[in-house]
Amino acid sequence: MHVLIIGAAGMVGRKFVGAISRCGMLGTQSVEKLTLVDAVEPQVPAGFEGAVTRLALDISEPSTAPQLLADRPDVIVHLAAIVSGEAEQDFDKGYSINLDGTRYLFDAVRQISLQHGYCPRLVFASSIAVFGSPMPDEIDDIFVRAPMTSYGTQKAICELLLQDYTRRGFFDGMAIRLPTICIRPGLPNKAASGFFSGILREPLAGKEAILPVPDTVSHWHASPRAAVGFLTHAATMDTGPVGHRRALTMPGILATVAEQIEALRQIAGDKAVALIRQEPDPDIIRIVSNWPRGFATERALALGFRAESSFDEIIRIHIDDEMGGKL
Amino acid sequence: MHVLIIGAAGMVGRKFVGAISRCGMLGTQSVEKLTLVDAVEPQVPAGFEGAVTRLALDISEPSTAPQLLADRPDVIVHLAAIVSGEAEQDFDKGYSINLDGTRYLFDAVRQISLQHGYCPRLVFASSIAVFGSPMPDEIDDIFVRAPMTSYGTQKAICELLLQDYTRRGFFDGMAIRLPTICIRPGLPNKAASGFFSGILREPLAGKEAILPVPDTVSHWHASPRAAVGFLTHAATMDTGPVGHRRALTMPGILATVAEQIEALRQIAGDKAVALIRQEPDPDIIRIVSNWPRGFATERALALGFRAESSFDEIIRIHIDDEMGGKL
Description:
- Chains A, B: It comes from Hoeflea ulvae.
- Chain A is an alpha/beta fold.
- Chain A has helices at residues 11-23, 64-68, 84-89, 91-116, 150-167, 194-204, 224-236, 257-273, 282-289, 298-302, 311-322, and strands at residues 2-6, 25-26, 29-30, 33-38, 51-56, 75-78, 121-127, 138-139, 172-178, 180-181, 209-211, 218-222, 247-249, 253-256, 276-278, 294-295.
- In chain A, the strands form 5 sheets. Chain A has a 7-stranded parallel β-sheet, sandwiched between helices. In chain A, strands 10-12-14 form a 3-stranded mixed β-sheet. The first copy, chain A, has a two-stranded antiparallel sheet with strand order 2-3.
- In chain A, helix 6 runs parallel beside helix 8.
- Chain A binds chain B through residues 91, 132, 141-148, 150, 153, 156-157, 160-161, 163-164, 167-168, 244-245, and chain B through 91, 132, 141-148, 150, 153, 156-157, 160-161, 163-164, 167-168, 244-245.
């Protein structure tokens, strides 16, 4: 099969490409060809023996999507987006890439579908930012999408488009809302959510980390490995039982910062915990207070999506996948 | 004040223009200028003494919205849309007019807002078609928008855009979801919902009407006069208490077809009821079974929106407004 991955150079994209490349499979199906696209040219996928095309393209250009679909990939995974903060700062860029770019892709698939009966699986990475306060403690799949950011608005609109295009038979779409990915590898960044990973990743590496919120703050987490699993399942599952509501919040772990820190203590000891410095940041406290906390994901679980079952597991996955298995 | 009405030639548009024209007021504010736009040139508003501009324009042309905003109307009421059946049959036309046309309008307002601090009130007529089955018996304002038509998808997307543009301060938006308007004046039409009005309007005029569904079917109704009231209130109300969730289902009357017919009997007697001929239509039965039935509209009521309190009242309004007050 031929898999097209748009947004292949991002953190989740690289992990997903890596998983396919290592075994040459997507789920139980063998992958002969990968087309990897991003705003910058994606890296060569290590170990992959099939054909690879790597492209640096702008999805907000109307000509990009038809070019990507020229040889009709069987599976399309669309991860590309301007992140929340940038979409808030640059209104035009956010709508152009996150909404228009996605619509160009959907419409390009539709054109081939109308002419040739093409109907690929299309997986769209959405976000829990489609929800906004006031919110219940557990958000279920029938709770209103009422985003409080332009990014969340763009994701919610794309979910609606995906459902309509799927209902019309132009493609077989799945929109999955990823939890906050934890532990995010790499360097500390300035995203408001960065500390959820930073307070674990940095102390595990013997470095200091800053905690800008009270440790009573709770949040919804899944590992990078779980994110790859969600994408793989969404790309290969039987969509028959999903019905017409194709946007699903992915399972995750609801944990307070205190519970995250306690898991760190169990695995890396008091010395690691001592590296976390409390430094309250009113801006981040305010932003985080508007975020969803917990979700009721029975439907995603019933459809076979799986996340970690404890925060210990999330930390151990980071040690395995990013630190060669040892502290 | 200057009021721009897009979709002024439609049934609700004509009623709204008529109400403004009769008293020269919108709510408690005097109206000096009306700009009336539709795909066909709207009629001269009878009795209006202010300035009137009437335009036949295509809102899916990018140049239309900037032209309409050249002298910065204080209130914009956007009613124009391709109806549900046509949006389902002609995918491109539906998205072009119902989504792109609305977005061109929003973006044209935004451009003037960015340059000149313009911030008009913008009222958008949305639809209960933003909801889709499975649905509870009473849909509240936190129930997911999960439309099952392209029309409903386009309306849901415009609600999301309106909320984001309002949050950003580009305009002061209100999206109101109109109930099925009953009794719709004029000739019988082929809309699947046409019979809800037809089984009352035709017998009141001494003509036969066809009932294509069982009389146990229930639906959400408001009169044309109530629709004018919703638009007027949305255009003039204090939006402070509304907060950031700017899409509201309007109040209405939940009635079964049997209850509609009983109200007809009370007002026009058995002779009128005898003009209703039962002729079940499986297509219409199927379509109607996917429609929302009842709504919990406490929030709209608390914000001052008012509909009729009985079906008798709905029939009497038709007799007053369309039949000169007598049978």
